[in-house]
Write a structure and sequence with these properties.
about 575 residues; alpha/beta
């Protein structure tokens, strides 16, 4: 392999196979270098690997596409290249506190051949390519390891320097990208690259020295802006708190996840959302959200765990499950979930709920309420746990002589008599019911665990007094709501809903929806709607152009009184 470095809007690396006179490019730059292709001993560029979506990297993609070059992009930034028109339409321009540099995107979409998945190894053209997640300059950036060289995009410029400080400030008051750059650089050294080849800057033949200098400079930046250095590198090296010899709490993640260790050298995870993150997620488009697996390096190094065999969620929220699909792809991890939770994970478009993950998450086991299951030397049980959300479960097991109950985000565990109150963490949009916390308190009284572990708060040693406080609190939650509200709120508690909530339809082709109660269905005037029974309908959309998120509604009549259109669903329609 011959490497040519082409100075363009970014450094374009042309990796040449001299026998076939073909090449793979890392990033496209402006594409103007294609006019000089023969001078590099190349007749054809078979493939281009994109490190991130910024225009200085990808402006030339249309020129490459016109020559038949295959285009490979980071999995988490595909929408910013193949569907960038949609990005421009929805990009916020006023009251905007999101500082991600996605304004520096292509002006129009370019079809891509495929995506480069994190931690994957692929054959691209004449090369074997390892894709490493390296968020920092953008959340979705990747580096490519090829024949020992690390092509790092704009992760690093040169020893002690980065290409842009502005790109590292993802939120209005944060320096998230700076912290993530340090974590990405530290993990990149695990692969022992012989050189770092950046998109702007100069080749670095002493990667370890370059990384140390750059992390030191970034720590200075974070300290100056935020008043203290980032603690993310410390968390990367020491992510786990040992609750007992076989139960670990991941302190780097949001939400917190837990590792149950088997003497067989494998692990079961309870929840696994955003590992080694800088903050609690606040929502945003797909390209701003990036699960990855940095804590697993310490699990192997410090505890001899070779594989995560199973992951079990306490509930469906993205901060508890975002990395499940990645775990399955990288480690072959199976997801086991309580039946109602599994339904949401596998069919997210059926629901109008907060904190849904973007893609379906297949579940290898749907566990009935109260059922026991065995993993390695452990017996676990899953129990319905409505409150924080209807779609949640408590996970009970015994480890190292302690009865443990994982309760997700149900309550804070903060109660101290006369000092701190216990806070019930209910959210109405999660399908909360007034009696949920009384039900969960009764479950706790029945199970009487020694230790309760949660998603965002410290583990709680359980005493009879604490269980009694949870019982009192559950009764109080129910009383307050009954005093405040009429007997039924059919709109905001989700008692009336249309399923699926999001429909992807084709013009002129029927689709079926079902309302949770008897209803009439209201659709656009040009569409056809046929009733199947009191609550099920077949709809045929009629459009002249593709449309997104067209609302349809359920009109509800009860006891002869029309209550209005109490639920809606959203329909995307393509022409064919």
């Amino acid at each position: 392999m011959i490497i040519h470095t082409i100075e363009d809007s970014c450094l374009v690396y042309l990796l040449v196979d001299p026998r076939s006179r073909t090449a793979v490019a890392v990033d496209a730059g402006s594409g103007r270098w294609l006019e000089r292709l023969a001078s590099y001993g190349v007749d054809r560029v078979t493939d281009v690997l994109v490190t991130h979506h910024h225009r200085d990297q990808v402006e030339g993609l249309p020129l490459l596409a016109a020559t038949g070059t295959r285009i490979w992009v980071p999995a988490h930034e595909e929408e910013l290249i193949a569907d960038v028109g949609h990005h421009w339409l929805r990009r916020g321009l006023v009251h905007n506190y999101d500082l991600h540099t996605d304004r520096f995107s292509l002006l129009g979409p370019v079809p891509v051949t495929g995506v480069m998945k994190d931690y994957s190894t692929s054959r691209i053209g004449h090369l074997t390519v390892r894709t490493v997640p390296t968020p920092g300059h953008t959340p979705g950036s990747v580096s490519y390891l090829i024949d020992g060289y690390a092509f790092t995009g704009d992760l690093i410029h040169s020893p002690g320097k980065v290409w842009s400080a502005a790109a590292l400030q993802w939120s209005y008051v944060g320096m998230e990208g700076a912290a993530m750059t340090m974590a990405s650089l530290a993990q990149l050294l695990d692969y022992e690259p012989r050189a770092l080849l950046p998109s702007h800057g100069a080749r670095m033949d002493d990667p370890a020295t370059a990384v140390r200098a750059t992390c030191s400079a970034l720590q200075d930046l974070v300290r100056v802006r935020l008043g203290a250095p980032s603690g993310l590198l410390d968390k990367l090296e020491d992510p786990y708190v040992e609750l007992s010899p076989h139960l670990l709490m991941n302190r780097t993640s949001e939400s917190r996840s837990y590792a149950l260790l088997s003497d067989s050298g494998t692990a079961l995870l309870i929840d696994y959302g955003y590992d080694l993150t800088t903050s609690i997620p606040v929502g945003g488009p797909r390209h701003t959200v990036r699960p990855w697996l940095p804590s697993l390096r310490a699990l192997q190094r410090d505890y001899g765990i070779e594989r995560v065999e199973v992951a079990i969620p306490t509930h469906y929220h993205d901060d508890h499950v975002a990395a499940f699909n990645l775990l399955r792809e990288v480690q072959g991890t199976e997801v086991w979930a309580a039946g109602p939770v599994a339904q949401v994970l596998e069919n997210p478009t059926d629901y109008d709920l907060p904190c849904l993950w973007f893609e379906p998450i297949p579940c290898a086991q749907h566990v009935p309420n109260g059922a026991g299951l065995r993993w390695r030397e452990y017996e676990l049980s899953l129990y319905d746990l409505p409150g924080h959300t209807l779609y949640a479960s408590a996970i009970g097991f015994e480890v190292d002589g302690q009865r443990v109950l994982a309760t997700g985000d149900q309550q804070t565990g903060s109660w101290e008599p006369g000092v701190a109150a216990e806070i019930p963490n209910f959210q109405y949009a999660n399908a909360f019911g007034a009696d949920d916390y009384a039900a969960s308190a009764a479950l706790y009284q029945r199970l009487r665990p020694d230790l309760m572990i949660s998603g965002h708060w410290d583990p709680r040693a359980v005493t009879p007094a604490y269980l009694d406080e949870l019982t009192r609190l559950g009764d109080e939650v129910a009383r307050v709501h009954r005093a405040l509200l009429p007997p039924e709120d059919p709109v905001f508690t989700g008692a009336v809903r249309i399923s699926p909530y999001r429909v992807h339809a084709v013009n002129g082709q029927p689709f079926t929806v079902r309302v949770s109660v008897p209803a009439d269905l209201v659709v656009p005037a040009d569409w056809e709607c046929q009733r199947v029974d009191a609550a099920e309908f077949v709809v045929i959309p009629r459009v002249t152009r593709p449309v997104r998120q067209v609302p349809i509604a359920a009109g509800i009549t009860r006891d002869g009184i029309y209550l209005g259109q109490l639920a809606e669903a959203l329909v995307d329609v393509r022409l064919s």
